[in-house]
Amino acid sequence: MPFWSPDGQFIAFFAANKLKRVAVSGGGVQTVCEVFKGSAAGGAAEGGAWGQDGAIIYAVTNSPLMRVLAMGGMAQPVTALTKGERLHAFPQFLPGGRHVLYLAMSEDPANRTIYVQELGSAKRVRVLQNLTRAMWSPPPAPRRLDQEGYLLFVREGTLFAQRMDAKTFKMEGEALAVAQEVRANDGNGVSSFAVSGNGVLAYRSGALLRTTQLTWRGRDGSVLGTVGAPGRIISPALSPDGKSVVVLVGDLELEMDAWVMDLATGVFTRMTRDAKASIYDAPPAWSPDSQRLAITRSHGGPEEITLASGEVISLTKEPVSAWGWSPDGRSILCAVQTIAARRILLLSLADGAKLQTILDTPYGKSEFRFSPDGQYLVYVSAESGTKEIYVASFPSFAVKRKVSSGGGNFPVWAKGGKEIFYRSNDGSMMQAEVQTGANIEASIPKPLFQFGSGVDVLNRFAVTADGQRFLTSEPVQNDEAEKPEITLVLNWAAEMKQQ
Length: 499
Known about the structure:
Mean pLDDT is 87; it is low at 38-43. The protein is globular and about 65 Å long. The chain has a seven-stranded antiparallel beta sheet with strand order 31-32-33-34-35-36-37, with no helix packed on it. Strands 38, 39, 40, 41 and 42 form a five-stranded antiparallel beta sheet that branches. A four-stranded antiparallel beta sheet has the order 1-2-3-4, with no helix packed on it. Helix content is 1%, strand content 49%. The protein is an all-beta fold. The chain starts with a strand and ends with a helix.
């Protein structure tokens, strides 16, 4: 999430848990400050803004807005989280540099709100309720900064502009459409547009997901065949009985529906119809009997769906991700909904669906999978400063072993808990043998084959119980028309003034 200095001579950006700056003309990179310890790589940054006074306001996960001098120093909070808010994100300085616009991300996404707050004051003005970020743009030329400008925001793929009073920050008039099919993600609040102070607008359009084909590969990477029809398909997960696969299917907004496919026939059955299956949190999780699914919702708590009847039961109203069904069917492992959760909970199904915290750490964790005997978990943790694969005893986490080296993601078990497969950061499919007991032993991981990028959050895979075949979701060739493009609009606000 890079952003510019006011004079356009520097770019600030986030890397390796630090806020950094570099001159556009070149030269060395300078560290401004450390922004977050123990975050997953790339998971901490939530936007930044560089003010005329030489200070930077930035946002990171689970934090209010922070202020630091661009030349470096200690960061201090400039806002405060209220009850139910998870973080303040995507800051923008308004003219004069005394007020900042930002999105308050709530535990309940329906309560996300755009605010304007004066620096040094606890008071803030509620501007607009919206799932994704907004940006203020000045009025068209000739103009004065004390005139009303426009607030730009995306809803359901449409970029809107609505007048906003520059003194009271209140919305006025009607929201008018500026562009269609603008990329946005209601899950994390990101929207793909930017506007400059002199009337230049840029936005990104096109499908967020490319058309993919479910593909079987062998341990050597050879293509063994395909299954089902192509579509915008991600996150395949094989049922415990090996007869079905659940996938997420969607289009523009990175909010998707869960579908189940019969592997023998290639026939898809739609399981959800509200496009609210989570994409950045946990994928659908199978029950041990292969008859039910736990679906993580991007808005609200997870649900249980029975395949045969389609019956839907709410598992909990709490905004948690359902990562895995225990092999005995009595509980579901959950985590607080973020890209890299810190609090891990167990949802007991036999005890009135009660949630109990079993682990709470300052670093992010994700991609939890139970071992076949239910005594261990394989998961991704950022405790070393980057995403690595770990195996730990469950539910105590008392015995633990790091399996990967140099980063990894999307771990799965095979061969009765004797093998772990995962994706390395360069896209290699990695294999490691493991032995569990009083101590956990793991072999040196070795690459099997390579496809795509291992850091792509959408690039999960499934493996058969014997560890011999891999089910992947791979881009279909000849889909150039689906590639997104950036559109540049000059003096866009002048047209809005005429409307």
